[in-house]
């Protein structure tokens, strides 16, 4: 250590009083050291950690992909590219591993925060013995901020009642601004700032709000503020984009740059990317391009319509991704203008997992259809795309688009598979660029040491001269499982320190040791998750050791093209056994704990049936909205209608691609139910709502106790029936992954486009109280079955994030 | 009035040049005398939401229905207010071309705009019902099609059928 402070125990103890305190000031000697703050070790640099979402090894141009990434190129040219860097194959697990420096199961994030499982590796509850490294930096005198996507807070805790122990501030960030959800619309992002949702924000300078731009402005403002306050204090900024996760939202000017560039299709794109990767040297000359899986269609087999639609899907994705690079570039420019670029370690990871296969082979106009288990044919997808604005709207707020599975596969060139598939490099190997001229001398060079996302924290701490703490807040710490690779910054021949690593994600698993990689892929198509399909993996049915295995020797086989399992049975058995040892050590067991709702292992049935919102409660996060799905329910609102009438939204949840709104328009009480952008149902009162104190109600009487049940809607004013109608289809799991519930107005994208021109269509009377009363089904078995369905759906949504 | 029974089809396309391809195919069928149409039009809604009739097939001739002031049955049905100002007085052949290059400010825009989002295209055709299979096969790249039977002759019935076909494009 470079100073005398014991930094292994946090918070750092204040130094003992070194002055003298006599009875009076006379004879006393001050110790001004008491008023100081903990300072990092001398020379500790700023750190900018950039994480792009849902992208593959073969996406950015810097690694041979089709997406122009001039800023990533710039950083790589002035720094290093790492071409054997690995993540966990899924969002939250990677983020937890990144920020804690520990294996994801070891910190409870074997699954996702949308479903907290009842096993230590899957609780989604960060344990206190695994202090994240931002907290370590903070406690050692760094200013810290997290800007952008979070996705590490259990869904049920995302409200004003907290608790806040899993919100970003508690992970060690002085300041947080972004979204907690697994994904978010880029035009109507529901923003959280520190420990409060502040909702959808306005755009600047007359332009519409756009999250990538706004988050960059926030990041720049933050570093400007820190430096204005303290000219010396180093900062750590975690800049985590929502891009390039669905919805693929970007202005046309960005997607138009790629017009026609994907008409050759995904098969040819992979070949082109592979060729560029070899020229760049990020893929060895002797590497082999792996073939297409049978689950993905050959480009040449598609109809002309499909080819054109799919090509446009990729144009939008590419434009969206380039836009992310552009905004990181703005941030880099700001750091450079401050004169701090060379004193800032820039670590830029392109993808928290491989590119996402979850768009299904057709791609989708609304990812919510897939999340809710609504299968749509190619033809239906096209019809619905047409309904919501055609190709011109793919990328706008009118849709929630995700491209075809096979584009993701192409984005993961040269590997097999992609996101969720932890058994293969398509899900787990992502680009990494590091710039730090203080240590790196061979600018533009390549590093090929095996590295892992858990190594980032230990490396940053070593660069800062800060030890890993053994005790934090009185709690003995798990050692970080990642290892520093700082020596590789200066030394291209530095030996590999990360010689062994397990991978596991919802049953897909791998064991790496000394160059050998054993793939153990569950025979499950990643974009299919339904109870029937999962029966074969039920307790007592599935023996994971019977799963097919593939064995690769990565030093000779960069892309996992040559399966050596048949000729090396002993190595297979050795790595299988090693995986189980790791499983024991890091709480991976029981496998599929994150899928436990599919096998009848459920959290206790909730007892709350009534939720009351007094006044205009806004921005209720999706996980905290009353769960009306698959049940009969009543929404009752006490209003005051002034003389002359009122209009506006009484209560609304989510938007036109899934949601409901109860509102008054043209004097009438109206209810709109948006079924995932596929159907929309509307009911209204026959007459006008009277002035004065009024109670209005909407009741939904479910036909059956089953998911997606149809049912009857009835509207009441002061207890008298005033209208009715039918919902032929209802949303079985959730309207939206990010959009919230609002009382008294409809924030962000609205549910009923009929009042979009008046958005947020604030109620002009007074909403005194809104009460949701969700009726339990009379049959306990039915209730339990729906409870199981809800938990399954939580899991389904989470793994798409 | 002919005894032939007619259908009206509205076909919507995500990709405008695939609409053009199908339109050309339909026109070729007529030119090859494998199909007779009472009217066919290629309609585009550009990126800014301007609906235009890109081309009509009225030069191919019609056989039975009399409506539209000599300007083409589909055009005549869909855009009567504009026709009234542009086409009245005859000289139809020349004016149709002129008309096709103009933004349609009423009639077609109202009726087709909802079915065709900006950046898409559509085909409207009125044809002999006995050839429905051929027309359907030719409009292969349409993302959505809606067909209505013309219940009897006369402009009123045709418009009713067209309205029915348009209604089928909703939802």
Blueprint (SSEs and pairs):
The complex is a heterodimer of chains A (801) and B (171).
Chain A (H helix, E strand, L loop, with lengths): L8 E2 L35 E7 L17 H8 L2 E3 L2 E2 L4 H10 L32 H7 L3 E7 L25 E5 L11 E3 L2 E4 L11 H19 L5 E6 L11 H4 L9 H16 L23 H34 L6 E7 L16 H5 L6 H10 L2 H4 L11 H7 L13 H4 L3 E4 L9 E3 L3 E2 L3 H9 L6 E2 L2 E2 L10 H4 L9 E6 L2 E6 L2 E5 L10 H4 L14 E5 L15 H18 L23 E5 L17 E10 L6 E8 L2 E8 L2 E8 L3 E10 L3 E11 L8 E7 L2 E8 L13 E3 L22 E10 L4 H20 L2
Parallel strand pairs in A: 1-14, 2-9, 2-10, 3-12, 4-13, 5-6, 5-9
Antiparallel strand pairs in A: 3-11, 6-7, 7-8, 10-11, 14-15, 16-17, 17-18, 18-19, 20-30, 21-26, 21-30, 22-23, 22-29, 23-24, 24-25, 26-27, 27-28
Helix pairs in contact in A: 3-13, 4-7, 6-11
Chain B lengths: L5 E8 L2 H16 L5 E9 L5 E6 L16 H6 L1 H7 L5 H9 L7 H6 L6 E9 L3 H7 L5 E6 L5 H13 L4
Antiparallel strand pairs in B: 1-4, 1-5, 2-3, 2-4
Number of separate helices of chain B: 7
- Enumerate the strands of the largest sheet of chain B in spatial order, edge to edge or round the barrel: 3-2-4-1-5
Shape type of chain A: globular
Order of helices and strands of chain B: EHEEHHHHEHEH
Record the strand order, biggest sheet of chain A.
8-7-6-5-9-2-10-11-3-12
Overall pLDDT of chain A: 94
Largest interface summary? A-B, 18 and 14 residues
Strand content of chain A: 15-25%
Helix count, DSSP H or I runs of 4 or more residues of chain A: 17
Low-confidence stretches of chain A: none
| Strand segment tally of chain A | 30
Please state the structural category of chain B.
Answer: alpha+beta
Task: Sketch the major β-sheet of chain A.
Answer: 10 strands, mixed
Roughly how many Å apart are the termini of chain A?
Answer: 40 Å
What average pLDDT do the residues of chain B reach?
A: 67
Give the terminus-to-terminus CA distance of chain B. Answer: 34 Å
